[in-house]
Amino acid sequence: MQIANNTVVSIHYTLTNTDGNVMDSSVGQEPLAYLHGASNIIPGLENALLGKSVGDSLEVTVDPTLGYGDIREEMIQDVDRSNFAGIDEIEVGMQFMAQTPWGEQPVTVIAIEDDSITLDGNHPLAGQTLIFNVEVVTVREATAEELAAGSVQ
Description:
The protein is mainly beta. The protein has helices at about 45-50, 145-150, and strands at about 5-15, 20-25, 30-35, 55-60, 75-80, 95-100, 105-110, 115-120, 130-140. It folds into two domains: about 5-70 and about 125-150, Chitinase A, domain 3 (Roll); about 75-120, Thrombin, subunit H (Beta Barrel), CATH 2.40.10.330. It is built from two helices and nine strands. Strand 1 and strand 2 (about 20-25) form a beta hairpin. It is elongated and about 60 Å long. The model has no long low-confidence stretch (mean pLDDT about 95). It is found in: Cytoplasm. Keywords: Chaperone, Cytoplasm, Isomerase, Rotamase.
């Protein structure tokens, strides 16, 4: 069976950046299962998997526009340290949930000054070209429940 919309696909993958650093991997764990065509994974990877079959291996390079998007400067802002009252230690790299015009979303501390903290609401992989090494493990028809939910159940 080939990967098509409304199929449940399981893949093993290793994600690296353009410097060759491993960013994430399913190797040694359960494969990633997703519903193809339901936007469960980034578009660049989903597009490359269309038509593949069990046992196929491929390397996919995904441009930011088909990955996690370009860095949006409006998602980076300085906030007054007083917004973190009750938090004793704040370090670069820490993540918090913030209420934004787009709803609640994670933000990452990227800089700390005496009276202000710079937060980045972009996805951590935004602006990066991503390289996936993928092996297709299983492909099957989605159940009615999975189609209704829009994800693997």
